[in-house]
Amino acid sequence: MSSQPQPRYTPQEYLALERKAEHRSEYFAGEIFAMSGASERHNLIALNVAASLHAQFRNRSCKVYASDMRVKVSATGLYTYPDVVALCGEPQFDDEQKDTLLNPTVIIEVLSPSTEAYDRGDKFGHYRKLASLAEYVLISQDKPHVEHYVRQPDNQWLLSEASSLQDSVQLPSINCTLVLAEIYEKVELGT
């Protein structure tokens, strides 16, 4: 018995399907990957981060998008949905639908057991190809722990970490601060 070959899609076919779909999917190299739902902790952390950035962006030309803003990495062809995306200045979109962002400044991912290796590895590799990306943040949902990568002038990435609820993380590219106590507000850790 032979397995059926998986259909291949063009980016245009993917976008046409995705814009009608009830559930989100990511796209890379002709394949469409269904996304699973997120845990309560994951949702609370992502919402807390987006809310914090939104509050800090008042009266500034900056925007924050939570989970439903698709990002395209033009250099590699990846279409994905980061947990939180932020930028200051004018957003650039893939087309007139304005649902696929091309120029994020900061991307934040909340780590899940099923996606942690991908978020740290291949996905970060794709994100590094975004010329606009200045910072990448990974947030644990099991314990207070934030990894913050900042692009350096030589295109290297500098890592710093915060692991206490009293700590904060400075996001210089968007002039914001994430306080771990606020990131983890109402989140039951270690269970």
Briefly characterize the structure.
The chain is α+β, with helices and mostly antiparallel strands. It has five helices and 13 strands. The N and C termini lie far apart (44 Å).
Descriptive overview:
The model has no long low-confidence stretch (mean pLDDT 94). The chain has 191 residues and is of the alpha+beta class. It is 21% helix and 30% strand. It has 5 helices and 13 strands. The protein has a single domain (38-183), classed as tt1808, chain A (Alpha-Beta Complex). A 6-stranded mixed beta sheet has the order 3-6-8-9-10-11, covered by helices on one side.
Features:
three-stranded mixed beta sheet; tt1808, chain A; 13 strands; 191 residues; 30% strand; six-stranded mixed beta sheet; 21% helix; alpha+beta
Ends apart, CA distance between termini = 44 Å
The CATH homologous superfamily is named: tt1808, chain A
Q: Largest sheet, if any?
A: 6 strands, mixed
Q: Kindly report the spatial arrangement of strands forming the biggest sheet.
A: 3-6-8-9-10-11
N-to-C SSE series? HEEHEEEEEEHHEEEEEH
**What is the average per-residue confidence, as pLDDT, rounded to a whole number?**
94
Number of helices: 5
Q: What are the low-pLDDT stretches, counting only 5+ consecutive residues below 50?
A: none
Radius of gyration: 17 Å
Please estimate the helix content.
Answer: 10-25%
Q: CATH topology, which one?
A: tt1808, chain A
